[in-house]
Amino acid sequence: MHSAHRPLSMNERPRLLIVDDERGVRESLRAILQGECEVLTASSGDEAIAIVGREPVDVVTLDLKMPGLGGIGVLERIKEIDPDIEVLIITGYGTIDTAVQGLRFRAFDYISKPFDCDHVRQLVQSALARRAAARRMKSLPDQILSSLSHEFRTPLNVIMGYSTILQEDGESLSDEQRLALDRIRSNSDALLGYVETLFYMAELDCGAQALDVAPVRLSDMLGKLRSNLAPGATGKDVMVRLDVSTGLVLATDEDKLTRLLRALLDNAVQHTPQGHVVVTARPASGGATLEIRDSGPGIAPELIVETEDVIAGRTGMRPPRQLGFGLRLAGRLVRALGASLTLVGSRDGTTCHLVIPDLAAADAPHVAYGG
Fold first, then answer.
1. Is 117 left (phi over 0), alpha (psi -120 to 50) or beta?
2. Mean pLDDT throughout 211-231?
3. Backbone phi, psi, residue 240, to 5°
4. pLDDT the model gives residue 361
5. Is 146 exposed, middle or buried (0-12, 13-18, 19+ CB in 10 A)?
6. What pTM did the predictor assign?
7. What is the pLDDT of residues 188-217, one digit of tens each?
8. Measured over all CA atoms, what is the biggest interatomic distance in the chain, rounded to whole angstroms?
9. Which of 5, 14, 235, 313 has the maximum number of C-beta atoms within 10 A of its C-beta?
10. Which of 87, 127, 126, 92 minimizes the C-alpha distance to 105?
């Protein structure tokens, strides 16, 4: 069910609804956020549902523990009224189970009490940015997006097809010509991959990629990824080693987690001229922890905070120039999976610490979730 009210136009000031039974919390959040958008407040879940049903709202901050209809119930009703409203859960608990339960109902993120003003602003800005991106995407007919995708892919497929035909006629080619064709083919493959990633990232940004949760054995997934990486890693004299707990199974979206780990591993191998990349995976409360450690030159300390800001989706930050497609995609997938990613740089290399929640940890039905 969608709300019958008129949606906000692209030029109108965004609208935020603060839902909390404590007046002090409502007023504190209003003071923090009124410079970002127009602010509405509700002291109960029922009042919030009534407001969302009659007025355009972009983002909701929602207290998890309220008398009467609780936060998760309110979140479910809001998403029934308008699935594209972004919801930030406010909780005094801050546990991974709480975050996962909200994510299962498509919460954008969660805020732990006592909250940090700058962190709250950043999360609201990120939620507003995704809401705006979703509106922009929906303003384009599906035919236009499909046409754009087709226009990008078709010439690349033609180039790749003809280069394959020419390669098969290798006997009449000189070594220099064969080398040129190899470069054409490899660069066309890479460019097609960038195009696919670009459109996938656009789908994540507008919430068009639903979570498909199923049990995943991490040792099998990482083993396949290492096999796929082997040619590129061997060519650079980089050894990829796995240290994964036996029988470690996680309920998650296999495709998204595979894309995330592939992006992080590709980045580690790419920035390791020679040496090793070690992947460690261990069970953790409510999920699993993964560590990807490389022996490359290490990320510059001044870039770590900027990179983590981009990965976390915090707006208002200037993205590091060195941050490539892979880490930008990783950031979106981290948020889609409800995971967290931190970076540690040193002279001995860079380490990615990834915490992935088990999406079956909370007792909630499966619903779609956008990244």
1. alpha
2. 85
3. -105, 120
4. 59
5. exposed
6. 0.57
7. 777 777 777 777 777 776 666 677 889 999
8. 81
9. 313
10. 87
